[in-house]
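Below is how a single chain appears once it has passed through the pipeline. First comes the sequence as given, then the structure the pipeline wrote out for it. We keep one example in the README because the format questions we get most often are answered faster by looking than by reading.
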Amino acid sequence: MAAEPEGYLLSLALPKLNFNHEEWIKKFASGLKEDQDQYCWKLWGGDTVATTGPITISVTAVGLVKKGRLISRSTAKPGDFIYVSGTLGDAAAGLEVIKENFDRFKYKDLIKRYYLPQPRLKLAIELAELVTSMMDISDGLLGDLGHICKSSSVGAEIFANNIPISLALNNLFKTRSDYKKLKWIGGDDYELLFTLPYESEDKIDEISKRNGILLTKIGNITTSKKIKLLGADRKEIETEREGYRHF
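Resulting structure:
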């Protein structure tokens, strides 16, 4: 939503028995410090309790956005182009590599995208002047695009071949073609998904080069209130699901 991070609240529930609290907290705090230094935000407070169950971590992040610059998911317009940042499907593929016990060294880049996503905070702030709607991709491309379309009362056409993927994911596809759907249903990439009016498109290349982040047009917003995933022949591709469902 084009906000800058300010602080966060942290709640921890740590196992009561058979758990080295000091060692775990030392490592956890070290990771928190790296994130605080990188994103210039602070721990404001929270709560720590014991539990008879597994470790539970809950973070509430708080940010500020300049007046008039807040970008929502409810203002996409028919005719807008649909763009994404970076590459999609890596994090979901990384999870599959872990679950299926594939060669971790060979697919280390995919695993890293799953364990350590990089939020596009600076890019989002820069795009806020141009876009009509924007959100990050946490539940998968089709699932999160569905949130934008529902909130904006519009539809969308997405061209499957235009969805950007990494070299690492392309290598995985060579042996596991059934994973190709991950680029449109896989979550946890936290790349930006945004809609852009025609008159702003000429500024995208400059922003992409300045930030060193790929920005790719993958489709357009329509009036149909339906999301269509299209192949190279413009025939609609049937999908099993529309992204991660929380419940």
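Residues 139 and 247 are 12 Å apart (CA to CA).

See the next section for the split statistics.
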